[in-house]
Each structure stands twice: as C-alpha cells, then as structure tokens.
Amino acid sequence: MLLRATSLAVVVGALASAVTAASLWPVNDITLSILDKARSQTKELHLDYPTALSTPVLAQAGEVVKLSFKIGEHNGKKALPHQAMIRFQSKDEYADSIMVVGSVSKSSGRGRIEIDLASSTADERFKYNTRQYNMELLIGGYIQDLDSFKYDLGTIEIEAPASNPAIRPARVAYTAQPEIHHQFRPDQKLINVVVSGTFTALVLAPWLILALLWSRLNIRFEPLRALAQNPKDIFMALLFMVSLFSIETTLYSYWVGVTLFPTLQQLGVWSVVAAVSGRSALSALQKRRLQRTGGDSGAKKEL
Amino acid sequence: MDEVKVATTKLVQNYVRDTPSSLKLIDAYMVYILLTGIIQFVYVVIAGTFPNNAFLAGFISTVASFILAANLRIQSNPKNASQFKTTSPER
C-alpha cells in the first residue's frame, strides 16, 4: 500500500512539475477488454486519448478487466516509462484503488494489466458491493521533455459477487480512551516496633557473648615492643588495618547508596593496598614469630 | 541421665584444657555467628520476610561466615598441621 502511495506521489509530482513541457508520453493502442471466467473476450473497447468512455462499462463478478496499451517512440528512441498504473476511484467513497502495471515490454513497448475480480488477491473493495469507479491511466518516467500521461478513461461499474461478498471492515473510530490512573502498590505493612526492636537487640546480643567469650580466653597479644623495633612494620600494620577498614566502609557505602562504578574503583585501589600491606605486615609477624620460637616448624602449637 | 552429665562435664573439661586458645577464639566466633543466624531465622518465622533482601543478605552472610570460620578452624588445628604444611598461622 505504501509502495502504491509512493508511486502515486511520484507520478503526481511529475505531472505537476511538467506543466510547461511540450508533449505527452506517446501512449496509443489503449484497449479496455472484459474477459469472462473462461478468458474469452466479451467486450473490447478502443480508447482514444483524451476521449473518455461515453457510457459506463459493466464488469460482472468473476470477470477479468484487462487494459493494454503501447508506448511509442520519442525522438526516434523507445520511451520506457518508469511507472504505469491504473487508478480506480470510487464515486461514493473517498478511497482509491491503484493497480500498478507490472512491466512494460522493452522491445514492443506494450504494457498491460489484468484485474481478475474473482481472484483472492483482487482488491477487497471490488467485492463489498456493486459500485461505479472512475478509471484513470497514469504513465510517467524520467524523460524530461515528456509530460506525464494522465488519461481519464471513463466509468466502470464493477459488480460485487452475488454470493459470499467480502465483509467491509468497520471504520476505525479513534476516540479518547479512558484515562489511565496508575495504581501504586500499597505500602507493606510494617511489623510492630516492639517486636522489631526486640529482635534488633537480640541480633546484636551475640556481640556481647562474643566479647565475653573472647575476654575469658586470656589472649596474649604480641608485645608492642617487638613490633616497634621496625617503624616500617608499624606503618604496614597500620596501613593494613586502615585498608581493611576502608574496604568495609566502601561496602557499607555501596549498601546505602548503590553506585557500582565508584565502588569498584575504590575497591580496586584498597584491595591492592590491602594485599601489599597485608603481605608485608603478616610476613614481618611470621618472621618475628620464627625468631621467637627459634624457627620451630611446629609453631602452631605455640599459638 | 547421670552418665550423660558425666560425659558432658568431661567433654567440657577436656575442651577447656586441651583446645589451643586460637581454636577457642575461632569457636567463640562461630558460636556468635551461629546465634546471629538463628535469631535472624526466628525473626523471619515470626515476622515474615518483608525486607526479603535484608533477610537473605543477613542470613546468607552468617552461613558463609560460619563456613569460612569452620575452614579456618580446620586449617589452624595443630592436629591437622600435617595436611596443611604450606599454610602458616599468619596466612
């Protein structure tokens, strides 16, 4: 349909632009025939531009409407049209049916179009009911000094099939739809503050148990004196703790305000710092432990 | 019943006496994790999973921490030292 509309636009445009051109496309031998179901000719009408048919032609349901024409020479050369089409304009409906002529023979210049009204591919509009159409032949091409050919052929009455006519689609009425009101999901009912508060306290309570249990273990820390022998060790140990804390902080900030890429950048930096400083601090710790225990490989027991 | 009591007492005594303090440290941590997980689960049973993501995050964290702590305990245990020759206590 779009193709047809575009083709029409091209032809109409050519018509408009070629007002001053000298001559029309040399179209002659225009013949309109009606063939019956057995493809035998029932009517043949020779048309002469610009005379239209004086009386309407009748095409019965199931017959074939055939239009043929021949395009002559222009300036001693064969003129080949770019587009050729036949337009059926219903007299009681603002809707055109445009049939494109498939091809025009290069050698003979003959073009023809057959519209089989019985065919399932024929325009549905021919099958709604019996109506009269105005026929128009349009031929145009890319030859500058030729006016596009537009020939009002006259009227044709196309009979709708007596049985099983096509159902005319209902006209689509575009009206305002009822307004859509967005429905927000109601807020989730929150649990009683007392219950949630109690459980918050309960969930935090194991910290106390942990502190209590650890305090009863009599854990011996490494004497600060040993650590303080080397300022680099202190620095690395501190850096390690800071980097671990920073990683936790970064994860917390990601949890609170979800920003993935800054989080990844920060994690990338801090994890490198943590890896380097941790390796240094822990290997220093191991060295001191081995010094203390005299390089005993069973040092795990000492812990 | 008395036998159970005796066995339990002996178990506790042996644990307190024989377990290295580093393992006790990890055990205390595991108890803490376990309790936290249980309390969260109880809360969900009572109050429902409304902040479902919060429950999932909290509970799965406790499970994961527990598993990691258990692994650390296995590796730190001097009795398993023969199986983890390359892992130092500071790893």
Q: Short description, anyone?
A:
The complex is a heterodimer of chains A (303) and B (91). Chain A is of the alpha+beta class.
Output the keywords.
heterodimer; A: 303 residues; alpha+beta; Coagulation Factor XIII, Chain A, domain 1; 5-stranded mixed beta sheet; 4-stranded antiparallel beta sheet; elongated; disordered C terminus; B: 91 residues; mainly alpha; 3 helices; 76% helix; flat
What does this molecule look like?
The complex is a heterodimer of chains A (303) and B (91). Chain A is α+β, with helices and mostly antiparallel strands and 303 residues long. Chain A folds into two domains: 157 residues, Coagulation Factor XIII, Chain A, domain 1; 83 residues. Chain A contains five helices and 13 strands. In chain A, helix 4 packs antiparallel against helix 5. Chain A is elongated and about 120 Å long. The relative contact order of chain A is 0.11. Chain B has three helices and no strands. Chain B is mainly alpha-helical. Chain B has one domain. Classes of the chains: A alpha+beta (303), B mainly alpha (91). Chains A and B meet through helix 2 and helix 5 of A and helix 2 of B.
| Corresponding CATH architecture of the largest domain in chain A | Distorted Sandwich
Strand residue content of chain B: under 5%
Q: What ranges of chain B have pLDDT less than 50 throughout 5 or more consecutive residues? A: none
Tell me the series of helices and strands of chain A, N- to C-terminal: HEEEEEEEEEEEEEHHHH
- Helical element count of chain B? 3
Please give the domain count of chain A: 2
Tell me about the largest β-sheet of chain A.
Answer: 5 strands, mixed
- Main β-sheet description of chain B: none
Query: How many strands in all of chain A?
Result: 13
User: What is the CATH level 1 assignment of the largest domain in chain A?
Assistant: Mainly Beta
Radius of gyration from the alpha-carbon trace of chain B, in angstroms:
17 Å
Strand content of chain A: 15-25%
- The computed structural class of chain A is alpha+beta
The number of distinct β-strands of chain B equals 0
The helix count of chain A comes to: 5
CATH topology grouping of the largest domain in chain A: Coagulation Factor XIII, Chain A, domain 1
Domain Ribophorin II third (chain A): 29-142
Pfam family, one (chain A): Ribophorin_II_C
Transmembrane segments (chain A): 190-214, 234-255
Pathway (chain A): Protein modification; protein glycosylation
